[in-house]
Amino acid sequence: MKASLPFKYITAVKNGKHYVVFDYKDKAGKRKRKWVKTDLQEKCSKKLLNAKVSEIVEEFTVNFGNENGKCSSIPMAQQPIKEFFDMWISAIKPDIARTTCQTYRRISSRLSEYLNEEYPDITLSDVDHNILQRYLNSLLKSGLKNVSVKQYYLALHSAFSYAVKMELIEKHPMDKLTVPRAERHESSFYNKDELSVLLAAFEGDVIEIVVHIAAYYGLRRCEILGLRWDAIDFQNKTLTIQRKVVEVTDENGKNKLYVETRLKTNSTRRTMPLIPHIEEMLIAKRKSDDYFRKSFGKSYNTEYDGFICRKPNGKLLKPNFVTNHFAYVIKTKGFRYLRFHDLRHSCASLLLANDVPMKAIQEWLGHSNFSITANLYSHLEYNAKIASAETIARVLGNVKSESETENTKAINDFCKGQSETNDPIL
Question: Residues 314, 293: contact at Cβ < 8 Å?
Answer without folding.
Answer: yes
